[in-house]
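How a chain folds remains the central question behind the approach discussed here. In the encoding step, the backbone of a single protein was reduced to a row of integers, each denoting a local shape. We regard such an encoding as a compact summary of how the chain folds. The sequence in question and its structure tokens are set out directly beneath this paragraph:

___
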Amino acid sequence: MTDAPPPADTDTRDWTFVIDSGCEECGYGPHDPATTTKRIQALPPRWAAVLQREDAAVRPREGTWSPLEYACHSRDLVGALGERIAAMLESRNPTFADYDGEAEAVRGEFWAADPARVAREIDEATAASAAVIARVSDGDWERTGQRGDGFTFTVASLCRYLVHDLEHHLHDVDG
């Protein structure tokens, strides 16, 4: 195992407020969930450009992830978007496993990942999630699923929540 950098500062805010209110920090405004595929398909080229930077693996300051770590996290989130929507389409009100991004970063050694490989994985995860979202019909947007803490998402609100997260992380790295 490569020596891990010091842990990133943990953000304990419940970001579900962005579903309805948007995010002043990054400029996200709640979007029409039917545009989710278009929005996520715009992300891989931006991540590829970020990951080509010479300093992509360098943390800008202690306690803040590097662009590479944010990219790995975003790869996982875009995959989770498709997996969770698929679960919501295939079963009634599924419960999603808790996701600890910081623990996953340590487990997956995000700081030591190959940037070119991560760029490909973002592209692949985005394509897979876009295919799932393409299965959503007009009557599916209000289907529900629950986070481990009991917060209930609809397909529409989950799209808003995770698209914000993905776009926000590009904002974090000036991508």
Observations:
- The longest strand covers residues 144-146.
